[in-house]
Amino acid sequence: MSSKIQDEKAREQLIDLAAEFYDQFAGGKIPEMKLPTRTKSNIVFDEDSNVWVYGDRTSTRSANSVRGARKLLKAVYTIDFLAKQLDEGRSSTLRELYYLSESWDNEEAQFSDQDESNQLVEDLEIVSEVTREDFHMRPEESGATLMGPLELREQTRRGEREIHCQKDVGEGGYQIPNNPDTIDFLDHDIDFVLCVETGGMRDRLVENGFDEEYNVLVVHLKGQPARATRRITKRLHDELDLPVVVFTDGDPWSYRIFGSVAYGSIKSAHLSEYLATPEAQYVGIRPQDIVDYDLPTDPLADSDINALESELTDPRFQSDFWTEQIELQLDIGKKAEQQALASRGLDFVTDTYLPERLTDMGVL
């Protein structure tokens, strides 16, 4: 679908939503907007698709109370702003939307903080079934990058351009755009996709030529991955039929980074089937690695212990592998970073650790 047609579709969906409020008024009904209840208790793990989705419970934003009327007023003002933005071919950030509301002529429509405006944009995504990227709404720059044997075409304000993600970029790689659906994959020599949590490890892999030696596309997650990063990873898997592996630190928060890539996150449960890659595999630092390689470690903090115990009951980690590794980590009371592998030499990760692990997993 061309970007112009996509913009028109997004605008139509927004206008249809505003028209619903008008029709409710005209029919003598109190305007309302129904949404899935956005609480942790209404997030369920769909066993068929292996991703987080909203459950059956819904809540209603109704103008029958001052609080509800204020929320709908803010929704209408935001819809008007987004529709104009699409008309003009402009874009804005989530942060800018919060500040822009200060200029709206009705003080009741202005946002009290950015969390409120962020949540409203997510609400509009859910009820309109259009993503914020198609609203031309951007988060603050994530800076996540790709490096590897992939040739693509991207759409820019200066027209289309073709880029090879090794030959045409510097050591920093190709920066993933806010909306990866504007990219066309042209050609590639990729054997698998390797998602890497930290910048230090990403730089080590590139410096050691791991992307060239093993025909791997290195995706820098930059910590908890942004939506654009998860979306392009899913597209690479689904459209190019590429295996995806995730390489993170060995701590509970990093396991959740893997879970976010593979199964989706609670915060974006309405987009899990658009963002998540359930077939992704974990190749990151394991508690068993800490023991086997005698890696430098840090002690588990109380928050780490609580997070690990929570993961023992998390549907995303219900397997013999995860149960065994998490229980081992609780037993040894230690965690380790990716860069701890450097204690065995700067080339250990690319010459030994990853090749052996990926061969065992059947990726190499």
TrEMBL record:
GO terms for cellular component: chromosome. Residues 140-189 form the Type II DNA topoisomerase VI subunit A all-beta domain. Pfam families: TOP6A-Spo11_Toprim, Topo_VI_alpha, TP6A_N. The active site is at residue 99. Residues 192-358 form the Topoisomerase 6 subunit A/Spo11 TOPRIM domain. It catalyses: ATP-dependent breakage, passage and rejoining of double-stranded DNA. One of its GO terms (biological process) is DNA topological change. It is an enzyme of class 5 (isomerase). Residues 70-136 form the Spo11/DNA topoisomerase VI subunit A N-terminal domain. It comes from the Archaea. Keywords: ATP-binding, DNA-binding, Isomerase, Magnesium, Metal-binding, Nucleotide-binding, Topoisomerase. Belongs to the TOP6A family. This is Type 2 DNA topoisomerase 6 subunit A.
